[in-house]
Amino acid sequence: MLRILIASAEMAPFAKEGGMGDVVGALAKMLSTRRHDVRIVMPLYGRIDRGAWEFQPTVDALQVPMGGLGRLECAVLEGILPGTKVPVYLIDYAPFYGRWGIYNEDGEGYRDNGPRFVFLSRAGLELCRAIGFSPQIIHVHDWHTAAVPIFLHTVFRDDPVLGDAATVLTVHNLCYTGEFDRNLMNVLGVGWERFNPRELEFYGRVSLLKGGLRHATAINTVSPTYAQEILTPEFGCGLEWVLRERESDLSGILNGVDYDQWNPETDSRIAANYSERDLTGKEACKKDLQRVTGLPERPDAPVIGMVSRLVRQKGVDVLAGVMKRILSLDLQIVLLGSGEARLQVFFKDLAGAAPSRFACRIGFDETLAHQVIAGSDFFLLPSRFEPCGLTQMYAMRYGALPVVRATGGLNDTVENFDEEKDSGTGFKFHDLTGEAIYNTLEWALRIYRAKPGTMNTLITRVMRQRFTWETATRRYEELYTEALGYTMKHANPLE
Questions:
Q1: How many Cα atoms sit within 13 Å of 391 on the Cβ side?
Q2: Cα–Cα distance between 102 and 110 in angstroms, integer?
Q3: pLDDT tens sequence across 21-34
Q4: 461 and 478, same domain (yes or no)
Q5: Based on the domain organization, do 478 and 456 belong to the same domain?
Q6: Domain range spanning residue 118?
């Protein structure tokens, strides 16, 4: 049994912006079933209803040193992760977290995000000392808690409670490097000598993620392919040379899916339940999706679903350039998502011009997301890069065949269809061009129309795929053990 502290900016069901929130909660849940002593620390955001989740005060006045800002005092609330006995500690400091947003508001990042998340990292460590919890592993996620390994190798290096802890830094998306003005060094309070090209300095600014990558005992990404991609200039975001120096400590662990939440056999959000043994309900889900999105109810029309952020990472800017040509095919497309204003306007206007073939819903609706995935014949993800991706795995469970770019976790989870061998689980393309997207969709539609027997075989095969948290958790346990062994031999990866 290991003592594990998980520090994260978000976690479902309390506060979530993206896949990281799902991952943190699912991993903690699975670790607890394997008898580990798991604790979680995250902020008390304004959106969290402490009463509804039955959080109670556990520390009234936690003193958190913040360099030039002095010692800030916060409270800590304690509750449990639903469905488990895992303690969850909420850092209650209204000047930083008493807002609705996690990272931003109206698309603009909070100007004090640097101090906000340095505070979370330091407060999580101070909390351990206050409650007498001595973790063997501290698992941190992305730049928001990347200051934890920095603190452990500086101000907490000889601490009797924390000094022997190993750290694992999971990179969910390397392009968010946690860059701030160099004056954040005064808040960190670890000494200006750490502001150097080998540790925290990044083109004249502070990068919390770079510092975390330098100081963490072990590093992982959320898919094996992405772990290799980020060693290259194309995907490394300027940090590829740091990662290459730590390549022996870098691994990729594919995320799992919570099949309690994503299961067409039991999903209460969709029009009818179904399985790979009986697809009748999927036909009803397709009809329902067409109805709720205002598309003509045509059982013969192939439906392409998308649930995506409308940002450059997702390749939707390239898709936009070829959408009119795609809509000339006899198909229907349903898009649910939000993001860059110009892309929102483009897709919304296009839906207005082609209402019988394209439905666009700006925003996010959990129920509609389930309906899109259940009611689609194909699911399109033309990502520029994709550290893991969860929606393609959801789509596969629901029998929506993935059409994806072969990058990151999309490449790891989708096997390209081979017509001669009748094998594979989806349709992949390599070059991110409008031509490649169009040609791959045209190929998928040809199979849909000309080979219905092959389509049914594909759907059955893809629905049987499983990406479980049991498998992912065993890999994390191995990583934790390796990190502990490394820490016993080497106090600091920089040494």
A1: 27
A2: 9
A3: 989 999 999 999 99
A4: no
A5: no
A6: 3-256+470-489
Q: Does residue 149 lie within any of the structural domains?
A: yes
Residue whose entry in the numeric block shows the structure tokens 């392009």: 175
Residues 366 and 386 in one domain: yes
Backbone φ and ψ of 292, nearest 5°? -70, -20
The bridge status of strand 250-252 relative to strand 303-307 is: unpaired
Within-domain flag for 339 = yes
Classify residue 270: in a domain, yes or no: no
Q: What type of residue sits at position 182? A: R
Residue 274 inside a domain? The answer is no
Handedness of CA 111, 112, 118, 120 (dihedral sign): negative
Contacts of 185 (CB under 8 A, 6+ apart): 67, 192, 194, 195, 200, 206
Task: Compute the distance between CA of residue 272 and CA of residue 324 in angstroms, rounded to an integer.
Answer: 32
If asked whether residues 85 and 163 sit together in one domain, one would say: yes
Residues 235 and 343 in one domain: no
- How many domains does the chain fold into? 2
Cis peptide before 160 (omega within 30 of 0): no
Residue with tokens 């978000």: 10
Domain match, 350 and 444 both: yes
pLDDT band of 385, cuts 50, 70, 90:
very high
CATH number at residue 353: 3.40.50.2000
Q: pLDDT tens, 279-311?
A: 999 999 999 999 999 999 999 999 999 999 899
Q: Is the pLDDT of residue 107 over 90?
A: no
